[in-house]
Amino acid sequence: MRFLIDAQLPRRLAIQLRRNGLDAIHTLDLPLGNRTTDLAINELSITEQYVVVTKDSGFVESFVLHGKPWKLLLVSTGNIRDSDLEGLFQSNVERIVDGFKTLGFIELSRSSVIFHL
Predict the structure, then answer these.
(1) Strands 50-54, 23-26: parallel, antiparallel or unpaired by DSSP?
(2) Rounded to 5°, angle at Cα 1 from 75 and 29
(3) pTM (2 d.p.)
(4) Torsion over CA of 49, 55, 60 and 62, rounded to 10 degrees?
(5) Residue 52: how many CB atoms within 10 A of its CB?
(6) What is the domain count for the chain?
(7) In CATH, what number is assigned to the domain containing residue 69?
(8) 18-50, pLDDT tens digit by residue?
(9) For residue 26, which of 11, 69, 78, 83 is within the disulfide window of CB 3.0 to 4.6 Å?
């Protein structure tokens, strides 16, 4: 499974996902870095089959209306320390990966993983 971490999330999250054996990049790793547009992120997600990991609710609208990105992980924790966010991912990464085997949209909150049909 491949993950593309959006600009408002820490780059360390991509590093953590790679430590868990997953393919992960951050927008900082792209040619335009954090200036990469949402449209470009969506297109890269489709062509390279990346799950977009973001806090940006605009991606939800794009996913529902246009089926882009390929798959979406919405982080709906509000403001959270990077270490707490990393802990949430560590605790839930297996459930998230399993969920994406059949679903296209998953949400991670402070207290749960929400699987959207």
Answers:
(1) unpaired
(2) 70
(3) 0.97
(4) -70
(5) 25
(6) 1
(7) 3.40.50
(8) 999 999 999 999 999 999 999 999 999 999 999
(9) 11
